[in-house]
Amino acid sequence: MLSPKLLSLIALFAALEAGAADPPRLVYVGTYTDWSLLVPVHRNPPGERSRGIYAFRFDSEKGVLTPLGLAAETVNPTYVTFSPSGRILYAANEIYEFGGRASGSASAFSIDRESGRLTFLNQMSSGGTGTCYARVDLTGRNLLIANFGSGSVAVLPIGADGSLSPASAFVQDAGSGPNPRQAGPHAHSFNVSPDNRLAIEAEFGMDRLFVYRFDAAAGTLSPADPPFVALRPGSAPRHLTFNPKGDVAYCLNEIDSTITVLAYRRDRGSFRELQTVSTLPAGFAEKNTAAEVLVDPSGRHLYASNRGHNSIAVFNVDDTGKLTLATLVPSGGRTPRGFCIDPDGRWLITANQDTHNIAVFAIDPTTGIPAATGQSLDVRSPVCVKFL
């Protein structure tokens, strides 16, 4: 007769072989909470306000979101990111000059994986205004932040408990571009390369990707050689992402709604433009600004959000990294500023800012095309959504 312990082991292996159901994941949504602290172009109409960061439980088998409520109260957490361990959430608090002083900041919270609740650790000045982006480097030692309002980037060291320290590096940009929205510098995102050797800043106001050598141990930045990549005048680079192999980067350009494809040479730490494609259908002439860009885990499909056309553009990726537009899918609301893809590449969730909702899509495993599941949940002014 088999022992209970052996029977338990047999049942466990049988479940693994059959493909046991994935445990539910946490999803966090960052929002606008106080429009009086924003530049006019970003303000929403008056109405009920959000209070901060909201948490959801996501069933990866059924594609169902369950609200867990307000995870943490904080001002304008318009971009959120996580530590490599998944224990800490960091939020960019997007505040422009208020009361004659720079008020941008980043906040750190510990994560309770059972409840989804966030516990405030500390908040640190970003050194600028309009802090709109935050990303943890691959070692988990530093938080890289971008200040849209003042046009600057900074590195905030991370302590053993996940809390933030004053900046170990800070760079103030100076310059402008041809569009009226580019009257001064506007840093829009700050990412590390797949080898963590470089930090790349998307400079919306200057049509450049600034490239820095990044020392994660010291938290320092120094200009790379070459120090920047010049993009099309008036394009306004916003966000950057890499393919899974780490040899191709994709820069989403906000004003002209394009994606610039760049080959990345790790040995040289340099970029070479391969292609620039539109995120919009041919003949579309109405106002639009592109917002987010992501590659699926397989590297075969790329997605970008359109605010105005209110869609997710779906691209096929060839062996060289170049893009071909496959289709455009309605985003499930208006002004899809942010969206996310689950780590298995099966689900996509959009954050539709002006219709105050997040919507769930199932991704076809062959075509990569998202299909609306019909699930849409109310969230006031959602602008960033992330799977943990």
| Biggest β-sheet: strands ordered side by side in the sheet | 3-2-1-28
Radius of gyration: 21 Å
Number of strand elements: 28
Low-confidence stretches: 1-20
CATH class of the domain at 74-230: Mainly Beta
Which structural class is indicated by helix and strand composition?
A: mainly beta
Distance between the ends: 44 Å
Q: What is the CATH-assigned architecture of the domain at 74-230? A: 7 Propeller
Q: Order of helices and strands, N to C?
A: HEEEEEEEEEEEEEEEEEEEEEEEEEEEE
pLDDT averaged over residues: 92
- What is the number of helices? 1
The percent range for strand residues is over 45%
Give the full name of the CATH homologous superfamily of the domain at 74-230: YVTN repeat-like/Quinoprotein amine dehydrogenase
Which descriptor suits the 3D outline? globular
Topology:
Layout: H1 4-18, E1 25-31, E2 52-59, E3 64-73, E4 77-82, E5 88-93, E6 105-111, E7 118-125, E8 131-136, E9 142-147, E10 152-157, E11 169-172, E12 187-192, E13 198-203, E14 208-215, E15 220-230, E16 237-242, E17 248-253, E18 258-265, E19 270-278, E20 289-295, E21 301-307, E22 311-317, E23 323-330, E24 336-341, E25 347-352, E26 357-363, E27 370-378, E28 382-387
Antiparallel strand pairs: 1-2, 1-28, 2-3, 4-5, 5-6, 6-7, 8-9, 9-10, 10-11, 12-13, 13-14, 14-15, 16-17, 17-18, 18-19, 20-21, 21-22, 22-23, 24-25, 25-26, 26-27
